[in-house]
Amino acid sequence: MSPRNPSPPAHDVFIAGVSLTKAGEHWQTSLRELAFEAVRLAQIDAGGLVPQALYVANAFAPILSHQIQLGALIADFSGLRGIEAVTVEAAGASGGMALRQAFLALMSGQLETAMVLGVEKMTDKIGPAVLSALATTTDADHEAVHGITPAAQAALLMQRYLYEYEAPSNALAGFSINSHANAVTNPNAIFQRALSEEAYTKAAMVCEPLNIMDAAPSVDGAAAVLLARRSVLPSESETPRVRILGSASATSALALHDQPDILTFTAAAESAHAAYAQSGLKAKDIDVFELHDQFSIFSALSLEAAGFAEKGQGWRLAHDGQIGLQGRIPITTFGGSTARGDSGGATGVYQLAEVVLQLQKRADKNQVMDTKIGMAQCLGGIGSTACTHILGRE
Questions:
Q1: 373 with 285: CB under 8 angstroms?
Q2: Could you give the CA distance from residue 59 to residue 90 in angstroms, rounded to a whole number?
Q3: Residue 218 in contact with residue 134, Cβ under 8 Å?
Q4: Spatial distance between the Cα atoms of 342 and 150, rounded to a whole number of angstroms
Q5: How far is CA 310 from CA 290, 304, 314, 315, 370, in A?
């Protein structure tokens, strides 16, 4: 008989190099140029390793950039013509899902190296065009057709959360304040200024009770991670090696009204606990957590889903100052989507690269002390898709 608690598998997949471009409004830079910069920098960071495959995470290029076939486009433009290349789309979870596909390919033994690139151009269109694109992450037949937007859905969740758990009206302010504080020292963030509680309270409403500081700005951006098996890594390295310890994804109902409990991110919980099981770790073992903070309510629900707080109590971690760089569970350590900027399908790759920087002690002024284990989780839609990765420093 097998033991009741078997040892987790030794995943032979490492992050060999990472890159992040500045999140912002890149009006003079095309999607392919932005992607190329991230690919080039990741290869340099990996000591010149050449990927055998390219997994492009993107959500909105067919709508906002009028471009499909991103795999072929970017491989060609980046000097990688001929390699296997494909686009992975899972709304805001695209980055994590692309990494998962690359991870599985390396684990299968079919590949030894693979590049995961997240890229998005959000600011070439404005106003209704962007809102229309974002609405495609909802159920087209039963939600988008009635004019619902992701922000309106988040407002509904926030309203119910505050009511259900009798939380104060400013219960979620700490999430935005923390993100903006961390972004001050992140050169890749679009908002590099602190946010006071007074400014949060006076912020204009987007959709009551969700104000403009509760919602992440849509930005252009690209980030990349280059994966490799141990056999192709250099024998010596100046930076600690980072290995993927757990990789899992899950789905829930796409439409908000079809979810059994709108205040429980079931896909996030299932993917997190599957990643814990793979790695042999628990929530208490995580030193840093890059969660998906497209809206502040997502932060509270994600912390609860991943086991860092009891149901209805996630807001207290922010309210009590436990999520800062020196807190019990540091989150959004470079500003997250709230202050770094939300780059659609590239978001998950930004998160992963930031976790790697933390584990390798390359986070500069954003460094969390004594980090050995990090976790990144990105979400598609209102938690309909979730992808969780746990990384460890050797």
A1: yes
A2: 7
A3: yes
A4: 13
A5: 19, 6, 7, 10, 26
- Among residues 115, 26, 27, which one has the least CA distance to residue 79? 115
CA 238 – CA 352 distance, rounded (Å) = 20
Whether residue 330 is predicted with pLDDT greater than 90 in this model: the reply is: yes
Instruction: Summarize the confidence of residues 161-175 as an average pLDDT.
Output: 97
Contact present, 35 and 56 (Cβ < 8 Å): yes
Class of domain 14-393: alpha beta
Question: Does the model's pTM come out above 0.90?
Answer: yes
Q: What is the pLDDT of residue 10?
A: 61
Non-local (6+) Cβ contacts of 235 within 8 A are none
Instruction: Please tell me the distance from the alpha carbon of residue 249 to that of residue 270, in angstroms, as a whole number.
Output: 8
Average pLDDT (45-72) is 97
Q: Are 351 and 376 in contact (CB under 8 A)?
A: yes
Q: What residues does each domain of the chain span? A: 14-393
Cα distance between residue 358 and residue 354, in whole Å: 6
In the Cβ-directed half-sphere of 275, how many Cα atoms lie within 13 Å? 33
**CA-closest candidate to residue 336, choices 377, 386, 286, 308:** 377
pLDDT exceeds 80 at position 377? yes
User: What gap in Å lies between CA 343 and CA 332, rounded to an integer?
Assistant: 15
Residue 230's alpha-carbon distances to 43, 112, 362, in angstroms, are 16, 9, 21
Q: How far apart are CA 310 and CA 303, in angstroms?
A: 9
CB count within 10 Å of CB 61 equals 23
State the Cα–Cα distance between residues 108 and 224, nearest whole angstrom.
22
Q: Which residue has the tokens 């060999």?
A: 16
How far from 105 is each of 94, 215, 227, CA to CA, in Å?
Answer: 17, 35, 10
Distance CA(28)–CA(124), nearest Å, equals 10
Composition of the chain by helix, strand, coil, percent to 5: 40, 20, 40
Residue whose structure tokens are 């995943």? 11
- pLDDT, position 9: 59
Neighbouring CB atoms inside 10 A of 192's CB total 15
When the pLDDT of each residue in the chain is averaged and rounded to a whole number, the result is 96
CA distance 216 to 295: 6
